[in-house]
Amino acid sequence: MALQSDLHKERVERRVKEQLPRLDPVALDELGMTQAECEDLERKLRGYIVLPGMPDYPAAAAPHAAPRWPAFPQLIAFCETPSDVRICLALAREKALWAVPRSGRHSLANYSTCSGMIIDVSLMNGISVDPIELTARVGAGANFGLLNAVLDGYGLHVPGGTCADVGVAGFMQGGGYGLTSRRFGINSDCVLAVTMMLADGTIVVADAERERDLWWAVRGGTGNQFGILLDITFKLVELPSVWSFELRWTVEDAPAALDAIQRGYMRDADNADVGYLVVMATIDSEPCLLMLGLYSGDPADGMRALRPLMDVGKPTFRDDTGTYNTLNDAVLAVLPGPGLPTTMEAKRSGYIATPVGVEGWKTLVDYFATTPNPYNIMVLEPYGAAPTAYPRGDSAFIHREVDCDFFVDSFWDPTWPDCDEETALTWLAGFFGVVQPFLNGEMYQNYPVRDLPDYREQYWGDAFPELLRIKQHYDPAGFFHFEQSITPPPPPS
Prior knowledge:
With 493 residues, the protein is an alpha+beta fold. It has 3 domains: 2-120, 2-Layer Sandwich (Uridine Diphospho-n-acetylenolpyruvylglucosamine Reductase, domain 2), CATH 3.30.43; 127-238, Uridine Diphospho-n-acetylenolpyruvylglucosamine Reductase, domain 3, CATH 3.30.465; 242-438, Vanillyl-alcohol Oxidase, Chain A, domain 3, CATH 3.40.462.20. Strands 15-12-14-13-17-18-16 form a 7-stranded antiparallel beta sheet. A 5-stranded antiparallel beta sheet has the order 5-6-10-8-9. It has a 4-stranded mixed beta sheet with strand order 1-2-4-3. Helix 10 (254-264) packs across helix 13 (357-368). The chain is globular and about 70 Å long. The model has no long low-confidence stretch (mean pLDDT 95). The protein starts with a helix and ends in a 19-residue tail after the last helix. Strand 5 and strand 6 form a beta hairpin. It has helices at 2-18, 25-31, 35-44, 57-61, 82-95, 144-152, 168-173, 181-184, 212-218, 254-264, 299-310, 324-331, 357-368, 386-389, 421-435, 455-460, 464-474, and strands at residues 48-50, 75-78, 99-102, 117-120, 127-130, 135-139, 156-157, 191-197, 203-207, 228-235, 237-238, 242-250, 274-283, 286-295, 316-322, 344-352, 377-382, 404-412.
């Protein structure tokens, strides 16, 4: 232990000597801190700080998912312990800094950053598994790549994101949809307890018995609302292996296939083990429809469950068997990606809750065929089964009585002469003009959009008044805030 302590002190002093002298005096003045205060903060933390002028600032400040909205925080604190988080909160209160927690940097609207202080918890990524009780306690800094790899060793599972670098904490607080959600539920439905630090440094454990209101609110209320999440305790399920499948239809067969999928594999369907995404994409220069999924039962039963779709048009088919950790990544590998550091993305989503019909699907397929680049995608995330069975009022995630979440990703890049930002955004807006008649007005809060006219209603619906009451109880001063905070709605104009 003494050796570890000595090594930590050596690391801290090396950073103080080599990194902190490079601090920008103007940035320090704007931050309201002196060089000595920054050095003192570095020495207090088990983690470390990054400020403008330091070599690692550009990488530390950069978002992973939303380069459209760059931010330049005055201070980034990489916290390694709850004590680190408490020290940073105290500093933010003392200096009147806008402080925002960050984990996976995957906020699509870049709400996990700000112009003040980022409290980054990505180093708090410990995971402990109880294979007897089938539970896992997961640090708020863990991402799904790490969590899935750990659970894989036990043959255990919790529904999670399809991208390995998505942070577990932010994902869960927005609900959290994954490929196995139809069988095992929305990620937040699997939460037994959370540990959260409030703005004054108090640590609260919330579950079905203790601080039940907070437990209810954090499961769907989104991050940076009530406090800083420290860890999550999940209820796990046994899932030693899964069967993956891919069905692919031509654009001509796509409307009939989409109609068959909506009628037979969504809200009221009795096939919960069929977890999947439906994707319109351009592959080998041709638009096509893909059904990409994981079956959480016997492969022979999976084949029988998919048999009706084999008779719709002439789809190609391929499959594989393996662990969830392996195949969750492999399922989406077929989709092309821009792969350029300069590429920008805009996403918009909405819930389909009414039959679209073959003609309606044809309208959407025809619009997709006008894509200005080969990387745009249209995606359906099917609900029904476990998400629909979970009582709507038992958490702040309200999106239950729906067929699917519908979203479109639209990309642009300065190196693409035929697809600039205006072209990409115009195409995206046009798509939602076409799909609008089939949407119920709700929106998945993990796909935030900055210009929503009424995000309170679209994200939370009739759960919002209770969320506001809980917000005002746990964060009465509104310390945790951002552009789509839980705040009273503005008065009618």
